[in-house]
Amino acid sequence: MAIRPSNSASRPGFPVHRNPHAPRPAGRPGSQPTLRLVASRPDYPAFRAGWRSLRNADEFEALCQRHWLEPLQALRHGPVGFTAQLPGGIGDPLMRLVAQCLPMRFDIGGRSGAPAWHGIVESLSGDDDSLLVQARGFSLRLAASRIGSAWRVAIPDTEGLRESMEIFDLRGAPLVSIGPAPGCRPDERWTFGRLLRHALAGSPE
């Protein structure tokens, strides 16, 4: 089945500042001062420091919201070694992950989206335009024509780095997040991350 990204995710807003010196409209004594939207440049060094100092990966979305960063914007400005765009797309790393029979989770709509399914993928097939992921009770078609970019992401957690592959559409909206399934053994999480790092380096496996 084709999966469409969710449009219901909350988007961090800009602060509203009140201008105390704004003129009041004529004929309306006592009216409220004018409200203006002021967009401030995010403090990227502070965001990167906050990312590196995380100890709970579930707090990552709150960190992005505090710095007014959308998901893709956060990855583009993340600390070196914690985020990088996969130069060859999702095909090769996903095939290697499936070949290792690693338990994986697929969250539709990105990290904060719905946890659609987790388990071991039984079949991965593809053609020139798409990849079809299949398992018992689960089917997901990833169309290349809808994918804008894919990223390897690593977020500090109590058990080390929580690594995932984040896929975005052509407009930069989150499509799918793929990571180790809940309950994975430490060696399985390590293998998942190692395969993503190989995809970054273009190293043969």
How would you sum up this structure in a few lines?
This protein is an alpha+beta fold and 205 residues long. Helices cover 23% and strands 32% of the residues.
Please provide a written account of the structure:
This protein has about 200 residues and is α+β, with helices and mostly antiparallel strands. It has helices spanning about 45-50, 60-65, 70-75, 90-100, 185-200; strands at about 15-20, 35, 85, 105-110, 115-120, 125, 130-135, 140-145, 145-155, 160-170, 175-180. It has a 6-stranded antiparallel β-sheet. Strands 6-7-8 form a 3-stranded antiparallel β-sheet, with helices on one face. The chain is globular and about 45 Å long.
Helix content: 10-25%
- Helix and strand composition category: alpha+beta
* Biggest beta-sheet profile: 6 strands, antiparallel
- What is the succession of H and E elements? EEHHHEHEEEEEEEEH
For this entry, give a set of tags.
single chain; alpha+beta; six-stranded antiparallel β-sheet; three-stranded antiparallel β-sheet; 23% helix; disordered N terminus
Question: Topology of this protein?
Answer:
Layout lengths: L15 E3 L16 E3 L6 H9 L7 H7 L4 H6 L6 E3 L5 H9 L3 E6 L5 E7 L2 E4 L3 E6 L2 E6 L3 E11 L2 E10 L4 E7 L5 H16 L4
Antiparallel strand pairs: 1-2, 3-9, 4-5, 4-11, 6-7, 7-8, 9-10, 10-11
